[in-house]
TrEMBL record:
PANTHER family: ALPHA-1,2 MANNOSYLTRANSFERASE KTR1, MANNOSYLTRANSFERASE KTR5-RELATED
GO MF assignments: alpha-1,2-mannosyltransferase activity
One CC-aspect GO term: membrane
Keywords: Membrane, Transferase, Transmembrane, Transmembrane helix
GO biological process: cell wall mannoprotein biosynthetic process; protein N-linked glycosylation
Taxonomic placement: Eukaryota, Fungi, Fungi incertae sedis, Mucoromycota, Mucoromycotina
Keyword RNA-binding tagged: no
Protein name: Glycosyltransferase family 15 protein
InterPro entries listed in its UniProt record: Glyco_trans_15 (IPR002685), Nucleotide-diphossugar_trans (IPR029044)
Active-site residues, record numbering mapped to chain: E242
Family as reported in the entry's similarity comment: Belongs to the glycosyltransferase 15 family.
Length: 350
C-alpha cells in the first residue's frame, strides 16, 4: 500500500509524487470509541472506512470503551475490521463514571425524563443517553487505557469519511498549537439545554474568566448577536467527530468547570449534551486560533455531511456523494449550520 509522508497540511500531491516511506513521526494518540456490543456492525463499517482513508498508512491504535464488558464476538469483529491495528477494550467504572452521583435525585430525574419524552426533547427520555453525555463530557479522558495518550480522535458507529487523509492530523494539531478540532458546527436544540448558557456565564463570572469581546477568548463566538450578546446562539462543534487534546479536558480548569456543571444535576434533569459542554468549555479556556476546522476531512454522521468544496482546494481524492443535497451542511443557507458564523468569527479575531 502507498504511504504518505508527513505533509504538514492536506496538500494533495499527484499519486506519482507520493512517497512510499512510512511516517517517521507519530503522536501519542489513539482513536477513542465509546460503543455498545449491539453496534458492532456500525462501528466495524466506520473502522474499515477509516483504515482505508487514513489509518492503513498511520497505524494509530483504537481504544474501545463500554460500561458493559465487550463480548468475544464484538472483539473478533473489530479485529476483523482492521487485522493489523492495535486495539484495546476497556470497561468503564460503572459506579464512578456511569451512575448517579449522590447529589442527583433519581426519582426527580425519572420525572424529568418523562416530561422530556412528553415534550419531544430528543433522547431526553432515554436514561442511558444521559449517562453517555455525562461520561463524554467529564470522564472519558480519565479512562486508564488513555493514560499514555495526549490526543484522541473520536469515532462513532456508522460514520463515513470521503477523502484520503494524507497527513497526520495529530501532528498538525501539535505543530500549529491547536487543542480542539472539528468538522461540523451546528445549532443545538434549545430544549435540551434550557439552563446551560446561564450556568456557564455564571460560572465564568464566579471564576473571573474574561468572556468579553475584549479578550482573545473563543467564548464570544457563542454569543447571540440578535440579543446583544446576552444569550447563546446555540452553535456548537459536533462531538461525534473530534480530534483534540486529552490534556485540555484533564486540566484543572476544565475539571472545575465540569464539576460545576455536574453539581446542577442537569445532565439528568435536562439533557445536556457533551457537544455543547465541550464547545462552551473550549470557549472558556481556549483562544480562537487554538481551534481547528478540518475543512479537508469529508465526513458524514447520520444525515449531516461535510464535503470539501472544489473551490476550497481542500481534501485529497474525495469521493463525496454527487449533487447538491439538503443533507450537506456546507450550504450557507442550511438552516442550522454555524459555518457562516464560524468563518466570520475567525476573520474578525485574526
Ligand atoms: P447521537 O450521535 O447523539 O445520535 O448518539 P449515539 O447513539 O450515536 O451515541 C453517541 C456515542 O455513544 C456512540 O459512539 C454510541 O455508540 C455511544 N453510546 C450511546 N449510548 C451508549 C451506551 O448506553 N453504552 C455505550 N457503551 N455506548 C453508548
Ligand atoms: Mn452518533
Amino acid at each position: 500500500s502507498t504511504y504518505y509522508d508527513n505533509y504538514d497540511e492536506a496538500v494533495c500531491l499527484p499519486e506519482v509524487l507520493l512517497t512510499r516511506q512510512p511516517p517517521k513521526e507519530k503522536a501519542k494518540a489513539a482513536f477513542v470509541v465509546l460503543v455498545r456490543n449491539s453496534e458492532q456492525e456500525g462501528i466495524a463499517s466506520s473502522i474499515i472506512n477509516l483504515e482505508d482513508k487514513f489509518n492503513k498508512n498511520f497505524h494509530y491504535p483504537y481504544v474501545f470503551l463500554n460500561e458493559e464488558p465487550f463480548t468475544d464476538e464484538f472483539k473478533a469483529a473489530m479485529t476483523k475490521a482492521s487485522p493489523n491495528a492495535r486495539m484495546e477494550f476497556g470497561l468503564i467504572d460503572k459506579k464512578k463514571h456511569w451512575g448517579y452521583p449522590s447529589f442527583v435525585d433519581e426519582s426527580y430525574a425519572a420525572q424529568c425524563r418523562e416530561r422530556m419524552g412528553a415534550n419531544g426533547v430528543m433522547f431526553g427520555d432515554k436514561e442511558s443517553y444521559h449517562h453517555m453525555c455525562r461520561f463524554q463530557s467529564g470522564f472519558f479522558f480519565d479512562h486508564p487505557l488513555l493514560e499514555n495518550y495526549d490526543w484522541y480522535w473520536r469515532v462513532e458507529p456508522g460514520v463515513q469519511f470521503f477523502c484520503d487523509i494524507t497527513y497526520d492530523p495529530f501532528l498538525y494539531m501539535q505543530k500549529y498549537n491547536k487543542l480542539y478540532g472539528f468538522v461540523v458546527t451546528l445549532k443545538e436544540m434549545p430544549e435540551t439545554i434550557p439552563t446551560l448558557w446561564d450556568t456557564v456565564v455564571d460560572y465564568a463570572k464566579s471564576r473571573r474568566i474574561d468572556i468579553s469581546l475584549k479578550g482573545r477568548s473563543l467564548f464570544p463566538f457563542f454569543r447571540d448577536e440578535d440579543f446583544h450578546g446576552n444569550g447563546y446562539n446555540y452553535c456548537h462543534f459536533w462531538s461525534n467527530f473530534e480530534i483534540a487534546s486529552l490534556n485540555l479536558w484533564r486540566s484543572p480548569a476544565y475539571r472545575d468547570f465540569f464539576n460545576h456543571l455536574d453539581q446542577t444535576g442537569n445532565f439528568f434533569y435536562e439533557r445536556w449534551g457533551d457537544a455543547p459542554v465541550h464547545s462552551l468549555g473550549a470557549g472558556l479556556f481556549l483562544e480562537t486560533d487554538q481551534v481547528h476546522y478540518f475543512e479537508d476531512i469529508g465526513y458524514q454522521h447520520d444525515l449531516y455531511r461535510h464535503c470539501p468544496s472544489k473551490e476550497s482546494g481542500k481534501g485529497c481524492r474525495c469521493s463525496c456523494p454527487v449533487g447538491t443535497s439538503k443533507e450537506s451542511i456546507d450550504h450557507d443557507n442550511y438552516y442550522d449550520t454555524c459555518l457562516p458564523q464560524w468563518r466570520k468569527w475567525v476573520k474578525t479575531s485574526e
